[in-house]
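Q: Convert this sequence to structure tokens.
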Amino acid sequence: MKVRLMMLLLSIVLISLLWPEASRCSVAGVNFTVVGDIRHFVTTPDAVYIAAADRLYQLNRNLSLVRTVNQRGVLTGKSDSAQFYRVPEKAEWNATFSVNMLLPFLENKTLISCGVTDKKCGYCELLALTNISRVVYRENILVGPSRYPSASVAFLVSVASRGVYIMTAIEQSKNKTAENMCSSLKSEVLYLYDTVHHQDKKAGNQGDIFSISGDSATPVFRSKGDVDFVDGFQIDSIIYLFANVPSSVAGGNKVRLLWLQAKPNKVDTMKSFRGSSLIIPGGKGSSLVASSVVSGRVHSPLWVGVFSMDGEPSNTKLVLFNITPDLNIKENDDQDFSTSTTTYNPTKPRELQPQKVLFKKTSMTSVLAVTQGAWIVVFIGTGDGQLIKLNVDKNYHTTCPTLLHRTDGDSKVFPRMHLDAGRQHLYAAFSKTVQRVGVSKCHTHTTLQDCWSAQDPSCVWCHAKNRCTFKDECPNSSWLSIVEDYQPKMISYSVEKQSDGRISLNVHANVAVDPNTSSNFACNFLASSVELCEREGLPPKFPECKCILSKGTIPSQGMSVALKVKLGSMRLSETLKIMTCSDIKGSPTAALCQHCIEVGCAWSNGNCSWATAGVVSDRVCQTIQSATMLSISSVTPSVVSFYGHNRAVMSGYNLGQVVGVRVQTGMDCTPQESPVWDNTGQELLFHIPANEGKWTVGLCAVLPDASCHGNSTLTYVSSPSCTAVTPNTTWSSGKRKITLLGSNLEFVDSVLHSHAQQEVSLFTDRSSQNVTYHIPASQSAPRVFTSIVSLKVANKSLACLQSITYYPEPQFTSFTSTRTGDNVRITIQKKADHLDMSLEEVSAVGVYEGKDYLCIMEVKETSNQTDFFICEIQSAPDAIFRQLKVKYGEKTVMLQNTSHLFALTLLVFLLIPAIILVVVLVYRRQQQQLTVKMNKRMENLELDVRNDIRQGFVDLQTEKADLMENVGTIPFLDYKHFASRIFFPENEALMASCMADVSQVTVKVHLDECCQGLSKLIQDQHFLTSMVHAVEEQKSFTIKDKCALASLLTVALHSNLSYLTEVMEALLKDLMQKNSSAQPKMLLRRTECTVEKLLTNWMSVCLYGFLRESVGQHLFLLVSALTQQMSRGPVDRVTEKALYTLSEDWLLWQAQDFSPLRLKALFAVGGDGEVSEPLEVSALSCDTVEQVKEKVLTTFEAKFGFPYNRPVSVELDKDGSFVALEEVDASSHVVGEVTMLNTLKHYKVPDGATIKVLSRSPSDKPLQTLKDDRDFSGKYFHLIDPDVGEDRGKSPERKKLQLKEVHLTKLLSTKVAVHSFVENLFRSIWGTLQCRAPPAVKYFFDFLDAQADNMKILDADVLHIWKTNSLPLRFWVNILKNPQFVFDMDKSPQLDGCLSVIAQAFMDSFSLSETQLGKHAPTNKLLYAKDIPKFKQEVKDYYRQIRDQPPCAHADFHGFLHEESKKHENEFNEAAALKEIYKIIHRYFSEIVEKLEQNGAPAELKEQLHEVKKMFEGLKSCSWS
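A:
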């Protein structure tokens, strides 16, 4: 079983690496980003090594971090005796070891790392390949260049009898002097160093490591002038060196190739050199930029180089050379190099001509070439961050280049690239990143035809897998691939005329197949489903077959032939169009030539002929000159991003017949064509299509005959990017000037905002780095919200990294003016806000006698939450400005001068005493009249209060617990919905993301590589506890964040509850130790840290079974009883207060008189007015129409067991006709501006009345829902009169005064009605079934007992409080107050008030203190005052029984946890939780690392954390979705 599981996991990992559907990162590759810039990077079959500015990295093949070595240290001593020692990351240091040479030495299992320290002292190390932190050998010596960057190379050379040497070729430049302060350097160009002790020891020579001495003398190799080395390598016994020899003469630069023979003696090796110059045609001079030998060739070594032409670094060519050594060249006899100090041959070096110029492109920077069968595969890196693949056939014909990778910016690709051991991935370095990219996109070709058309020698169509794969991935199966030379079609054919007049149709299958398939080859030719060929002749032989047609078979208009080719178990089909070649006649145009070739004929001397008498390639058609006098003068724009451009303009002459524009790369790539519109003959419009690469393409104009004429170029570059928005705030009315910052912004067509539909395309300023425009208005009421800014480029929208926040309009409050000579100084006051308005954004104009006077802004000041804009009106009239126009954006505000209001204020103060005197006289007169009225009303009030008290006494004495005892099926929520509501009560987004989809519940969901790494990391208790402590110590990590972290950990570790329990215990112990010296009784009382919320979740998980089996029914019965009791009396629809309740806060003491009604509800059935049998529904005369609907629907569902269709409308049977009942209509009573909701009493509905219930269909006009009105409580009232002044005489039935205390007896009557349900619920919680508490309760209480013993806590009250805070307070109260966590139900506010009272009584039962209650005590305490002592005794017995219960065995409890994990397997989305946890880790990454170091975490744990970070960052950078 274990073997099967391991094989399954291995297959999943392999699929995730190879299938794009299984792993997002497999297509775009993975990457690793270093600190600082990359200096060198090398690979071995098992690892990647990177030397950065001050760190050395060891990665595995997947670019996951294995080790990091700090390159900082302490340099002691002076000159040659200086010693360098590394120090820890945070220790003091005075030097950095900068690596200038990095070589993996596989035979010795070491990594050779050489460079200089800060004093330019040479230093070398031999590091273990498997662990770069282990130094095998070190020495203070300069090996390789002394500076970086340097045009120098270093590589290993092998000599049969002497082993391996290090060869270094050092840049020589008279303008760059050596900066070595520790020892002098010789001026040699070439050095050979030993790699092991006594490697070259002979005749008394020491021969230590890094020794350059030879058998008899120290070898010498010098250059005549400056020289830059580009590459060096060894093939068999020949050493190859490539160098640039610069010249001050224009075009005098030389690219030199040197051959040396690896001989046992170093001096002989140096003297064996021969040299030649590499010649690049079509240029005045060239320099070598990058180099690669074509690896995998056995004979005649080939080499490719990137050359910059004519001194232009961006003008580059890729050129192929045969670099077989020319033994006819004399050794040690060269114009530029010599092994003596003075002798140089003045003769010009022999020149080496290229095989072919393979590729031309701007700014190529790196190259790597390998063989794939007869093909050469070339990988090219560019200066703008592209990795391109170029396939070259055996005839050196190049196919269409393929883009493997493209950076978002323009990061240059380093000259060196490497392949992995399996040759399926390419490693390339950018500024700070190493990228691993697949060498082929085989998996993207879904059909056999697509796989072949890719012309990729790496790919084959695997018949067994029915997909395009690498050849190595198709064992024991028939396969099909491309042939050794480029072919434009899989099936090619020609038509020939034989000597006897018969026609021969010759078919050639341009495919390569496995040997078994080639032997099973057959062709079938059909025309109109009839066999076409004569049966005589030879059978087909792969890859050719022939069909002999009899005379007259081909009609004059031609014919279609259905060809079916059998290749083993594979089938190919093609429709061939053939004609009699001599019938194709006309003017010798390119279109006629193309038609001739397409039907299998040949083109010869301007005519179409049989295939035996001309050229059968369509290339001949491209040489035919068209009679069309068409020319292209310009294309605007000529530079676009790779997303293309809409509405481009082509200008020229005679463009009237142009129907399209063709985009062609100039190689064998399928061209793109765009249609044309608005063609004037001199100008036409077209869309420039998107292109995957950044390169220059050709454009030509397409005519109706498909011929293409004219010539122009178009350059694709990187897409725009927006990195900042300034300012990033605006006011609601918009039109603020906004500037976007970024790169390539000149290609932006328009700017989009998420809140607005229109595009902003009118820019006030635009350049490559910024775009300025006026932002649109908010299009909604003034409020604070965020709008995402996006760039529209052709048909693509690119989001900016920063968004814009809208705020309400700025509030300019007033202004003051002060005359200063001839000028007036204006100070404008504005409330401070988040807009940060500048002087340039505000303008002001003073208004005097209808004329405007410009106020010139001078300065802005801020003080006491007020902004002051100060401006000056020059040469102002001798007057006071009382009005000022302030303009911002397109909005104008008119301000009034506040200084002239002083006189008006003084007048008001003088009038106040007089007004007060008049008011007092009027008041005294009205007081006398009011006293008479009040005496009469007091008599009526006394009578009303007596009646209310008597009715309350009657209710209390006649109350019966006649509520329902059986509620049928209880609507329990399933486990995942219950747990999610406990875990995330206030975060619906997290709740939804962490719940598994329905499809995931039944299927084991496998995590991706990133989540697997994080899951493994949090399974380490040392890391997890350190991480929790680290983030909790941050002030920015709120209580809400702590609760979220606890719940995310619960979800992520739900499959391992045993481990989650261990983590919780460890964190609880830490919390107890932290609080031991404070107040231990406060422990676990609140939820202020992660472990407290974790405990809540843990209890919920462990007690779900007990809750559902033992407590759930009693809880649901209580909730049902409360609901029924509240419905017996009035419930105010607006405030939702009820007459029958347990909470004084929700008591409807203002209730008016009401009477019970029994209604007969008829339900409409069918479409012909038919109705059901009447259903009796209980209602109250004070119920609103909506309340009646709810009671009807509730009664229906209770009787029939299923709900009636919603929404519904009701009609009253009134004198034989039905009248619609509405909550608000024209007859509604209005008090002031407040409308009373219509009730049954309003409609005069009698007892026993009949109502009809109609179901509204979705197509009907929706019913008016008053609750949807935001100001519902302000516009309407029900049972509680509005607080408005109106003559109550209009409503005499509502005029009597109500006293709240009179109705408090309703609380007691409700308590009596539901008391039995409360008791049953409480005892189901603290009762012990068979004298045993739930396992989790016993286990955790024992844990608390043990911790109290360890902390020497002797106070029994402390332990009681701990247990109370852990179980009743932390879990049961949450359940009692929130039954919607357990059942599929809604909780009304009045129900919530009742449950809060019951929950308080529940907690009072666990209290140790005795509460003294008086007449002013809260009613919720008084209700259960007599019951609490009895409950307290039961709680004490419960705690004692748990303590006396035998301990829960560790194995038994962990078995229980394992069963709980297994029972709810796959119910949560573990991956979503892990990604949210990583966001927290990423947010506090440095703090977590610091905490790990403080806690002494092992290095492997910190490395694992960094590896997880790299994987998640790799996931973010994937461009393939």
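The chain has a mean pLDDT of 85.
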